[in-house]
User: Which sequence fits this backbone?
DNA sequence: TTGTAGGCGTTATCAA
DNA sequence: TTGATAACGCCTACAA
């Protein structure tokens, strides 16, 4: 079987006995071509297996129908899920998704922004709002539409996301209402990560409001072991917290594992809360009390907003996706005494 | 702040007082330009913030430095993980990843292949080997290098993956060695999914080899609830199986949940096994006995192979990534009687 | 409704 | 070592 050279518009035009302009129109504005010729053309397209060349099209139309997403890593299930639905919506709109990862490093993000620009992305999805001004300027000077997702942002820019701070605040209030006075937190690494730092801020604000004084916060990388280790450190200090709130479910599940290893009952001896409501949280025993974050809905909303931005349609500056506390079994009253 | 038109090669050339050809050479073959002029050019590039236009470059060079991946869905953690490492390796090689999803539908996969071709992907990552011949032909006629991943394949084509059948076979032998004679299986949907069907085949082959006769297999979609439901059906039939082997960990964890709901102890009343070793499997109680599948390593190996294929370097036709049985707590001897 | 023709930004071939 | 210049494949006024 011989390798067949890719057919061009010219080939199709010749096969259908029309000009290249007509073929182009058949593909991009079918209503501007009379039915009979259109059918003839489409037949030729089919027969030759023609697919338009992206380079040529991009060059001539100044449009790539490509959208870029720069996320920390797909290994984090919450991003994988959001990106999946983001991509599905894009795909329906005829756009293709270009994916890059920053590994939580602003410098690397900056590089990837360059890659996306150079590939002519029509729009860009970024995560959160915490980034060097240089990265933002870079984008704005190019006038390329972009969006922060997974969180709400500052006074300018477009965002589709959750109010991480408020959700953490509400959850903390609930913990306090259960009677806890000694609360500690295992947060995600907050440097250049506004989701992590907002969650920490939310917890701090609520404990302050309740007059509990400054709570202890350990920041830990995103991993079960890291959560376990931080939990160990927290629980060997005196006075021991009666509730440990975690910046995400992975840390929380790691903490639960460590609690079991230490012979601590949850929630009998210590309450634990998470954030994200990943699959695993419904499955551990007892079930993890956490904050449900609808990543799929967010991905879809982000795609729709970015599409509008690209089309220069009017959009709200921020879209807040509501979250909800999911009470399962890891939050109880503090141990007596 | 005004939006700044993207500078072109021409702009840089003018700023540096050279021809566009020289600028192009500075970027693509620096050694062919004398140092002094090169420095002058690079300065202009820097000053203008020039990034080459992808469309123009693709058109002129017939190369896109783009690689496509068409996977069922990123929501499945095993793909998300593999794609992440795939992307990282690609990125280091200066290639960008285009992502599309097939939703496990061959028809949709075919469409996405078209999209990738039309975008000039230099190479393609597909999942597994089960697909209509038409999809394969489409690719081969174009002469575009592609790769099946996550499984090994038939007599032709390139593959980087696991021997799903052999791994399932080995695990089943282990189950039988524990004394189980009544084994049932909850498999993934096998239609056009060779990973799922190979795992089922492996289990069947081992039970046959042991003279256990035809075992009951229920196929279920990829979801906790689906695993739970299938498990319920299996355990209400007579005679009840003493071991339920699952085609993936998600089904297995669903089965474990259902077992608890039914008041069945695992592994006291029934043993359960999984496949994939996702995060959750180490965290459930008891820990799930399963097959560890190194997705990251596979993603990396796939990227390296595809890169070589694109460069027309010689490669092995198949690369097998080894798997390993992970014994945790869900596999025990069958209940007495 | 259809065709003609110029141009999009880059690379690559040839000369100089 | 550098510079002209002709592709590359497509889109889009503009003309017919």
Assistant:
């Amino acid at each position: 079987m011989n390798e067949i050279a890719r057919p061009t518009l010219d080939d199709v035009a010749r096969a259908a006995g029309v000009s290249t302009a007509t073929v182009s129109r058949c593909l991009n504005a079918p209503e501007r071509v009379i039915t009979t010729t259109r059918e003839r053309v489409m037949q030729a397209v089919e027969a030759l297996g023609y697919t338009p060349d992206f380079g040529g099209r991009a060059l001539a139309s100044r449009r790539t129908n490509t959208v870029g997403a720069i996320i920390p890593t797909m290994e984090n299930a919450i991003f994988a899920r959001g990106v999946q639905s983001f991509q599905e919506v894009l795909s329906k709109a005829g756009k293709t998704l270009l994916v890059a990862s920053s590994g939580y490093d602003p410098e690397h993000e900056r590089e990837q922004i360059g890659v996306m620009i150079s590939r002519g992305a029509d729009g860009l999805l970024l995560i959160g709002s915490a980034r060097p001004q240089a990265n933002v300027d870079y984008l704005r000077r190019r006038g390329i539409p972009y969006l922060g997702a997974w969180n709400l942002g500052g006074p300018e820019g477009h965002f589709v996301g959750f109010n991480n701070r408020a959700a953490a605040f509400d959850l903390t209030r609930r913990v306090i209402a259960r009677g806890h006075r000694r609360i500690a937190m295992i947060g995600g690494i907050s440097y250049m990560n506004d989701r992590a730092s907002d969650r920490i801020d939310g917890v701090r604000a609520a404990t302050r409001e309740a007059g509990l004084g400054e709570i202890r916060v350990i920041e830990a990388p995103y991993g079960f072991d890291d959560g376990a280790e931080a939990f160990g450190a927290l629980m060997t200090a005196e006075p021991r917290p009666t509730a440990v709130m975690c910046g995400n479910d992975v840390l929380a599940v790691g903490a639960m594992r460590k609690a079991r290893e230490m012979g601590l009952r949850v929630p009998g001896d210590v309450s634990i809360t998470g954030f994200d409501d990943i699959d695993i949280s419904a499955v551990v025993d007892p079930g993890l009390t956490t904050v449900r974050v609808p990543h799929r809905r967010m991905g879809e909303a982000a795609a729709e907003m970015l599409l509008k931005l690209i089309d220069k349609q009017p959009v709200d500056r921020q879209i807040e996706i509501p979250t909800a506390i999911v009470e399962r079994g890891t939050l109880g009253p503090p141990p007596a005494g």
About this structure: Residues 53-162+297-320 of chain A form a domain with the Rossmann fold fold (CATH 3.40.50.2300).
